[in-house]
């Protein structure tokens, strides 16, 4: 049940939870000792994932990421002492955003659970994962089977798109928010709720939060108002990739 956090908080070199994580200028992160050992073996100062050259020989510890990793590790270590009733409690895990996918105009919170649009074009690496044409950002976890559900707080923002995209979606060119382009979305624009490509949806009241439910094997993506579980819209499709 902690797969999302575990994936985000794992070092790509040792595959364990981060220990004193450092983040490179390309936004990829590793255990400090793992990165130094990798550099010694490789004979260069490139990122182990994207091969971009590091802007520094001694990256500083990412204290925010270290705090999240240490807290997660402590919770995992204490898991064996929990009683059965505690194990049965449903844990609400936030959507962890992937900073490597965020458009230049999007700023993510330190804990990577919220995003805001700004007017400044940030100087970020043009890596293959990043959306450059539109102000999009993806979560850090993808799915290729099973049932999954999460909630997104949209508040009073006047313009947003919430939903899923296929991993191979075009992140650099012109696309629409349609299933043909690999998007399954709910949207708000000009005070009208739509399915992302202009089809108006009947919504009784202003939505503050959106619950997204994915049944990958059945090909269903459904949207609900979590306050009263009112159904808003469902896509039915066939998924063939993450």
Work out the number of β strands: 11
Basic shape: globular
CATH 2nd-level architecture of the largest domain: Sandwich
The CATH homologous superfamily of the largest domain: SPRY domain
- The CATH C-level class name of the largest domain: Mainly Beta
Strand order of the largest sheet: 5-9-10-11
What profile does the largest beta sheet have? Answer: 4 strands, antiparallel
Q: Classify the secondary structure makeup into a structural class.
A: alpha+beta
Number of domains: 2
Q: Radius of gyration, rounded? A: 20 Å
| Order of secondary-structure elements | HEEHHHEEEEEEEEE
Looking at CATH, which topology of the largest domain would you report?
Jelly Rolls
β-strand amount:
15-25%
Span between termini: 19 Å
Mean pLDDT: 85
Number of continuous helical runs = 4
| Share of helical residues | 10-25%
């Amino acid at each position: 049940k902690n797969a999302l956090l575990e994936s985000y908080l794992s070092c790509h070199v040792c595959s364990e939870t981060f220990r004193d994580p450092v983040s490179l200028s390309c936004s990829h992160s590793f255990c400090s000792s793992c990165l130094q050992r990798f550099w010694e073996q490789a004979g260069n100062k490139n990122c182990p994932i994207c091969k971009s050259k590091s802007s520094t020989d001694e990256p500083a510890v990412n204290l925010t990421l270290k705090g999240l990793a240490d807290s997660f590790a402590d919770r995992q270590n204490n898991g064996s002492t929990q009683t059965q009733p505690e194990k049965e409690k449903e844990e609400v895990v936030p959507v962890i955003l992937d900073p490597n996918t965020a458009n230049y105009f999007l700023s993510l919170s330190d804990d990577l659970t919220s995003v805001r649009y700004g007017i400044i074009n940030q100087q970020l690496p043009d890596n293959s994962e990043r959306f450059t044409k539109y102000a999009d950002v993806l979560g850090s976890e993808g799915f290729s089977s099973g049932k999954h559900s999460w909630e997104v707080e949209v508040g009073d923002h006047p313009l947003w798109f919430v939903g899923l995209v296929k991993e191979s979606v075009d992140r650099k060119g012109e696309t629409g928010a349609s299933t043909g382009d690999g998007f399954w979305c709910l949207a708000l624009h000009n005070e009208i709720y739509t399915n992302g490509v202009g089809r108006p949806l009947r919504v009784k009241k202003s939505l503050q939060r959106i619950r997204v439910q994915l049944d990958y094997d059945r090909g269903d993506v459904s949207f609900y108002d979590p306050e009263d579980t009112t159904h808003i819209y469902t896509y039915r499709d066939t998924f063939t990739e993450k």
